[in-house]
Structures are given as C-alpha cells and as structure tokens.
Amino acid sequence: MNEHKTLKEQLEEAAQVLESKLQGRKPKIGIVLGSGLGPLAEQVQDAVYVPFGDVPHMKRSTATSHVGRFVCGELAGACVIAMQGRLHGYEGNSAQEVAFPIWLMHRIGVCTLITTNAAGAINESYSVGDFCIMTDHINFTGRNPVEGTEPDEIAFRFFSMKDAYDPELRTIASKVANRERIPVQMGVYLGLLGPSFETPAEIRAFKAWGADTVAMSVVEEVIAARHVGMRVLGISLCSNMACGIEGASPSDEEVFEVAQRRQGDFCKLVTEIVREIG
Ligand code: HPA
Asked: Is the pTM of this model over 0.85?
C-alpha cells in the first residue's frame, strides 16, 4: 500500500538525497534558469549534476530546452545551486509541484533565489533583447502553492508579498547591469499558466493593470520562496514583444532564438550579480 507522505516529509526525504549527492557542497544561492538560458550552468565550476528524476518526490521537466537537473558548484566565488530547467504549470504540474524544488533548495540552506525567464514585453518602451528586473508581480495563474494545509506545516500561510522582489538585490542587479553596459528595465511581471500565448485583448487588459512583461513561470516559485523567507531577485529576458504589441505574434522559435543571441550578456549579468551578493 502507498502510504501518504506529507509535503514536509517529502521535502525531508528529498533534502536528504539531494544533500548526499552534493558531496559536502553547501549552496547559499539558488538560480532558476529559464527558457534558453540554461547554458549559464556550464560555467559552474567543480560541478555536480543531479537530474530532477533522481530526487524523490520531484517532477521531471518536459519543456523544450529545459534540461531538468540541479547543477551545484562554484560561480564567481560563491557556492550556487542552479536549476537547469524548471517545472511549469503548463506541463501539468500543480502549483505545489512547481514550488517543490524552491522549498527543497531552502531546506538545504539556500537563502537567496535568483529566478530567470524569457518573457514577452508589454511595455512599448522596452526592446526585444532587453533584460527586465522584476519589481513586483501579478499572479494571474489562478493558483497558489501555499494553498491547502500541508504548506502551513512548513511555514505560516499568511505572509506579506510587499517587497517580494528584494529592493536591495534589485539595486545591486541594476548597478551591475549599468557597469557591464547591459540594457535593463525595471518592471512589473505578470505570470500566467499558458501554454497558449495571450490574445491581443488580454495583453491590452494586462497593460491597463500595470504589467510590463508577461510569461508562464516564476510567480509560483516566488510565492514559495517568500513563504519560507528567502530573498528573491527576478530577471526576465524580453524575448519578444507581447501579442499585439507592435503587431507581434509570439512564437516559441523567436523566444529561443533571442535567448540564444542574448546568452552572453545573460551569463555575464547573473555571474556578476552572484559575485556582488556572494
Ligand atoms: N507570453 C507568455 N510567455 C512568454 C512570452 C510571451 O509573450 N515570451 C516568452 N514567454
């Protein structure tokens, strides 16, 4: 018979396995690498690789270009753990399943989360290829990973989402970008479930709500991270203009093509941010 394990028990089991595979490494910074942004993981030195499937209770990644493994080692003098590929709701994962690796990283000692993605730009003053530091978000997934009784056993369920995107980390990220001459914007991110791209009418509505960028990830991770008190930095690569903006009609190919083109600056930006906060 399959005995039900609570979320807390599952996290404890997963943490034990992950920790043993890290062979003494003690990462303090977690990095989630979004669509087409995985190559940063190749710059991690003295790395160990742990496929998501080797960690009990963790779902596997099925999204294009998302390798689906943890990469732990040294980046810019800091011990980091990167998720090369993430779990999305549109892959059929529940909000809690999407959040699981975030809670897991926290459980093994990670206190700062840098989460990244490719996003559509709603703000017309942005350009394709710009990076955008998230200042806040609108959760339009209709879901919340802290829902239910079990997450409440990990940490209290009512917590503030003010300054969810750490103001100090935002300042550091923007200073690093300016120093490295990498174009960055600062804006409000809207996360939804996908996998269909938005309609032009939806994008007009989101614009009226104050959203600057839109994509299909990040918000559930950030809610989970704040639930357990992690500091969060969110960075999008504007891989396309959102549907209907300047006549755009987004496609997966465009997202990956731009991510590939902007990989160099992305790696430099995140590495130098890690060096500052390390
Ligand atoms: N919409 C939703 N998700 C995305 C987009 C977009 O325009 N670009 C990259 N991910």
From this structure: yes
Q: Which residue range(s) make up the domain with 39?
A: 7-277
Higher pLDDT, 37 or 30: 30
Question: Is position 101 within any domain?
Answer: yes
* pLDDT score of 117: 96
Identify the residue whose C-alpha is closest to ligand 1 atom 6.
120
Report the number of distinct structural domains present in the chain: 1
The reported pLDDT for the residue numbered 67 is 83
Reported as a single tens digit per residue, the pLDDT across 144-189 is 999 999 999 999 999 999 999 999 999 999 999 999 999 999 999 9
CATH number at residue 154: 3.40.50.1580
Angle value at C-alpha 178, between 173 and 179, nearest 5 degrees? 100
Residue to mutate (ligand 1; options 197, 241, 243; most atoms within 8 A of CB): 197
Residue 1 lies in a domain: no
